[in-house]
C-alpha cells in the first residue's frame, strides 16, 4: 500500500524458507582468484581441457566495477561472454547520446584486451525505460561477445519480463523462416511472367568459348534468382500454422480482435470454413487427377528429422562440434580423394571403335546444352549443390557416418541437360557392347528380377548337370563418391568415346562444391572434386561405364577358374560351380583376390566385413563349409561362415530354392499395406520375383496356397464380409482376379517383354535356340542343356 516500507521479496516476513541445507559443513563460496569484487561474478566452464570464462557485471553510479576491471585487465584471462548493467552511456551503443565519456572509453579498452566486442541486439532500443516522460531512456544493459560469436549468438531484447522499466537481453533464436511463393497466388503469376519476359531478352546465339558458356548459364540462373527474390516472401511455419490459412482469414480475424462482436466472429468463422473447403478441394483434385499419388497424404512421405539421440563418431571420438561433424561427413563421402589408381590394367582390353558422334549426343534442342558439349565445358553454377544427409533405413545404430547417405540437390535446369546426355550415352553404349552383359544395374531394360532370374537359372542348370553352386557376394564401399576422375577419363578413352564427350566429362567432373545440410544446420562450402553426387542424372551411366572394364578384365584374368560374375551397381556376386563345395571355396578365394586387386587398381575399396557366402544344395542337411577369404576379418580362426538364408536385391534365397522364406516374408508384408489400394500396391509386393518360382513344371502348390489365403483375407477386408464367406464369391464381388489366373497373366507379360530386350541382353543367352537372337549361348543355356549322367 502507499506509504508502506518497501521490502524485497526475499526479505519479506511472509516468505518462508522452503529448503534447508542438508549438512552444515557445506559452505558455498565464489572463487576470487580471477576477479575479487562484490559487483563482478565470474563463471568458468571446463570442457575437454579447455576453460571458457563468462562474466556478469553490475557497475553502480560510481563505476567501481568498470574501474576495477580496467586496473586489473592485464591479469585477466580471455573471456567469451560478459554482460550486465554497466550504468555507462556512450554513442557506441546509445544512438541518442551525444559525446563519449571517459568511463565508456575505458570499458571498451578493457573488453578489447580480454577478446570481447559489444554485440548489438537485433531489435536494438533503450534497455531502461524512464517512468518520467520528461527524462530520456538509456541503454545501460550491455552484452559483450567474442567477435566470432556475434553473428551466431546475436542478442535480442525481451519485453515485459522484468516489468515495463527494464528490458532483459536474451539470445536471438535461429531463424526458422524460408522464402516461399504461394501456389496459385498473384505472386506466382508475376514470378512466371517475369521469368518468361527476361528469358526472351537473352539472345540465342550459340556460345563458342568457355567464357560465353559461363555467361549464358549465369544469365539464365540470374533470371530465376532475381524473379524469386522479387516475388517470394519469408514464411515462418510453427506448430500452430494452418496450411489452408488465407489473407482473408487474417483480415477478418484482425477485425474481430478490434470489435469483439458476434457478427465479426461469424464472418471470421465463415472465411475459415471457405478457405478449408477451397484448399482441400484443390488438394483432392490435384492428387486424384494430376499426381495420382494417394500416399502423399500419409505421414511417412513427409520430412523426417535425423535421429537426435546419438552423436556421430569419427573412429572412437564423438563429434560434439559442428566443424568436426562436417569434417567427418566430408571425409566419409570423399574416400577417393588422394587414392592411387593404375590405368595400365586397361591395356589388356581391346580398343573399341570410336562412337557417340555429334549426331548422337549433340542433337539437343537447347543452345546451352549444345554449347556445353561442343565447347567441352560444364558451367560453374551447375557444379554447386546442397548435400542433405539422410539416414539409411533399419540401421541398428546411427552413431557412425556409414548409417547415413548424402542426397545431392542440383539446379533443375542442369539435371535436364544431364538426363538428355545420359539417355543418348546409355543406348549407344548398349548398342556397341560397352557394358558387360552381366551388368544388371543402372542400365535400362535390366532390373533386379533379371539378376535374380539369371542366378536361379544358373543354380538349377547346375543341378541338372550334377554341379554344386556357391556364391560370394561383395559390396563396394561408398562407390559413387569414390569414382576416381582420372581413371574414369582413361576408361572413356579406352572405350572409344568421341573426344568431344571426353572433354565434356573432363570439365563436368572437376570443380564441384557442396554445402552439407544436417537438419537445420548447414556447413560452409566444401570442395567435392572426387566421385559423382547422388543427385546427378549421369550417375547411372558413369558408374556403369566405370564398372564395365572391371567386369571384362575379371573374365580375362579368371578364365581358367570358370567363374560367373554378376554386377548390380555397387554390389557384385561371384558364382562357382563344381562337383564339390570345397572346390567351389578354393575357386571363390582365388576369384575374390582377382576382383579385389582390380578394384584397388580402380581406386575402389571392398568392404570385407559385408562379404557373404552362400551354398545352394538340393539335398536336405547338406554339407555347408566355411571359407577362409584371405582378408580380415574373415581369415584364420574367423573364416567366413555361409548363410542359411541369403537376402540379395530384395530376394530371400534358401539353399534348395524353395522360396518358402521369400513367399512367407512378402505375403506377410503385403498385409501391412492393406490401407493402400490392393491391386496397385499389395499385388506387386506379394508377386515380387514370381518369375523365379512360377513356371511350367514347378512344384509351387504351397506358395499358391499362401497367396490364395492372403487374397481371401484382403477380399474379406474389402467387402467387410463374414469369415465363412466363400472365397470365389468374394473375389468376384471385389473384382479380384484369382491368384492362379493373375500369375498366368503376369507370366505372359514377362514373355512379351523378352521380345523387346536388346539382342545382347544376358537373358537371351540363357534361352533356347528359338529365342537366342544374336546373343552367344551361355554354357548353361537351355539350348545346350543335357541331363546329368
Automatic annotation (TrEMBL):
Spans annotated as Disordered: 163-184
Annotated ranges, domain Reverse transcriptase: 371-653
Organism superkingdom: Eukaryota
Coiled-coil positions: none
Designated name of the protein: Reverse transcriptase domain-containing protein
Amino acid at each position: 500500500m502507499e506509504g508502506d516500507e518497501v521490502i524485497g521479496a526475499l526479505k519479506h516476513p511472509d516468505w518462508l524458507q522452503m529448503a534447508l541445507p542438508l549438512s552444515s559443513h557445506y559452505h558455498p563460496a565464489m572463487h576470487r582468484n580471477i576477479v575479487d569484487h562484490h559487483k563482478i561474478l565470474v563463471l568458468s566452464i571446463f570442457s575437454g581441457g579447455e576453460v571458457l570464462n563468462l562474466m556478469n557485471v553490475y557497475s553502480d553510479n560510481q563505476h567501481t566495477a568498470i574501474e576495477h576491471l580496467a586496473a586489473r585487465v592485464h591479469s585477466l584471462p580471455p573471456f567469451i561472454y560478459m554482460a550486465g548493467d554497466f550504468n555507462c552511456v556512450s554513442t557506441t551503443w546509445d544512438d541518442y547520446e551525444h559525446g563519449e565519456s571517459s568511463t565508456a572509453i575505458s570499458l571498451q579498452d578493457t573488453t578489447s584486451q580480454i577478446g570481447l566486442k559489444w554485440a548489438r541486439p537485433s531489435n536494438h532500443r533503450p534497455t531502461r525505460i524512464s517512468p518520467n516522460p520528461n527524462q530520456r531512456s538509456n541503454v545501460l544493459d550491455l552484452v559483450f561477445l567474442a567477435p566470432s560469436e556475434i553473428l551466431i549468438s546475436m542478442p535480442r531484447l525481451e519485453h515485459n519480463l522484468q516489468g515495463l522499466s527494464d528490458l532483459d537481453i536474451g539470445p536471438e533464436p535461429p531463424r526458422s523462416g524460408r522464402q516461399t511463393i504461394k501456389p496459385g497466388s498473384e505472386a506466382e503469376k508475376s514470378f512466371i511472367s517475369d521469368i518468361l519476359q527476361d528469358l526472351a531478352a537473352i539472345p540465342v546465339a550459340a556460345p563458342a568459348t568457355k567464357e560465353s558458356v559461363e555467361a549464358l548459364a549465369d544469365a539464365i540462373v540470374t533470371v530465376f534468382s532475381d524473379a524469386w527474390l522479387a516475388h517470394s516472401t519469408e514464411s515462418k511455419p510453427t506448430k500452430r500454422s494452418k496450411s489452408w490459412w488465407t489473407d482473408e482469414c487474417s483480415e477478418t480475424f484482425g477485425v474481430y480482435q478490434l470489435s469483439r462482436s458476434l457478427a465479426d466472429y461469424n464472418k471470421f468463422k465463415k472465411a475459415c470454413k471457405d478457405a478449408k473447403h477451397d484448399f482441400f478441394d484443390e488438394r483432392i483434385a490435384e492428387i486424384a487427377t494430376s499426381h495420382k499419388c494417394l500416399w502423399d497424404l500419409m505421414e511417412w512421405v513427409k520430412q523426417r528429422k535425423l535421429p537426435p539421440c546419438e552423436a556421430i563418431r569419427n573412429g572412437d571420438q564423438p563429434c560434439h562440434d559442428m566443424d568436426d561433424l562436417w569434417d567427418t561427413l566430408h571425409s566419409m563421402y570423399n574416400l577417393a580423394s588422394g587414392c592411387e589408381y593404375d590405368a595400365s590394367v586397361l591395356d589388356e582390353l581391346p580398343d573399341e571403335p570410336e562412337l557417340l558422334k555429334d549426331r548422337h549426343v549433340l542433337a539437343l534442342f537447347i543452345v546451352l546444352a549444345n554449347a556445353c558439349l561442343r565447347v567441352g565445358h560444364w558451367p560453374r553454377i551447375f557444379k554447386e549443390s546442397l548435400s542433405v544427409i539422410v539416414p539409411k533405413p533399419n540401421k541398428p545404430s546411427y552413431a557412425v557416418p556409414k548409417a547415413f547417405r548424402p542426397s545431392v540437390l542440383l539446379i533443375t535446369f542442369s539435371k535436364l541437360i544431364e538426363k538428355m546426355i545420359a539417355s543418348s550415352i546409355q543406348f549407344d553404349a548398349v548398342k556397341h557392347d560397352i557394358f558387360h552383359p552381366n551388368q544388371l544395374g543402372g542400365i535400362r531394360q535390366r532390373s533386379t528380377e533379371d539378376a535374380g532370374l539369371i542366378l536361379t537359372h544358373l543354380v538349377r542348370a547346375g543341378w541338372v548337370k550334377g554341379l554344386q553352386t556357391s556364391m560370394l557376394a561383395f559390396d563396394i564401399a561408398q562407390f559413387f563418391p569414390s569414382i576416381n576422375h582420372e581413371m574414369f577419363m582413361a576408361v572413356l578413352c579406352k572405350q572409344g568415346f568421341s573426344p568431344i564427350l571426353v572433354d565434356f566429362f573432363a570439365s563436368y567432373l572437376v570443380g564441384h562444391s557442396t554445402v552439407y545440410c544436417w537438419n537445420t544446420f548447414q556447413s560452409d562450402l566444401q570442395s567435392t572434386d572426387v566421385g559423382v553426387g547422388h543427385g546427378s542424372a549421369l550417375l547411372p551411366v558413369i558408374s556403369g561405364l566405370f564398372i564395365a572394364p572391371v567386369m571384362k578384365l575379371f573374365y580375362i584374368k579368371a578364365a581358367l577358374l570358370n567363374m560367373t560374375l554378376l554386377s548390380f551397381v555397387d554390389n557384385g556376386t561371384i558364382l562357382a560351380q563344381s562337383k564339390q563345395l570345397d572346390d567351389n571355396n578354393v575357386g571363390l578365394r582365388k576369384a575374390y583376390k582377382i576382383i579385389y586387386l582390380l578394384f584397388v587398381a580402380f581406386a575402389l575399396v571392398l568392404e570385407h566385413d559385408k562379404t557373404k557366402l552362400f551354398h545352394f544344395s538340393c539335398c536336405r542337411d547338406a554339407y555347408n563349409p566355411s571359407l577362409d577369404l584371405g582378408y580380415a576379418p574373415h581369415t584364420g580362426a574367423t573364416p567366413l561362415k555361409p548363410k542359411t538364408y541369403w537376402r540379395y536385391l530384395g530376394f530371400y534365397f534358401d539353399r534348395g530354392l524353395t522360396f518358402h522364406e521369400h513367399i512367407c516374408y512378402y505375403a506377410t508384408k503385403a498385409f501391412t499395406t492393406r490401407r493402400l489400394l490392393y491391386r496397385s500396391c499389395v499385388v506387386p509386393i506379394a508377386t515380387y520375383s514370381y518369375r523365379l518360382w512360377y513356371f511350367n513344371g514347378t512344384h509351387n502348390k504351397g506358395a499358391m496356397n499362401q497367396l490364395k489365403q492372403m487374397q481371401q483375407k484382403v477380399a474379406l477386408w474389402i467387402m467387410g464380409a463374414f469369415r465363412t464367406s466363400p472365397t470365389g464369391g468374394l473375389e468376384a464381388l471385389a473384382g479380384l482376379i484369382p491368384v492362379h489366373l493373375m500369375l498366368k497373366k503376369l507370366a505372359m507379360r514377362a514373355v512379351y517383354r523378352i521380345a523387346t530386350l536388346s539382342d545382347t541382353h544376358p537373358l537371351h543367352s540363357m534361352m533356347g535356340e528359338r529365342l537366342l537372337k544374336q546373343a552367344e549361348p551361355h554354357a548353361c543355356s537351355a539350348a545346350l542343356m543335357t541331363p546329368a549322367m
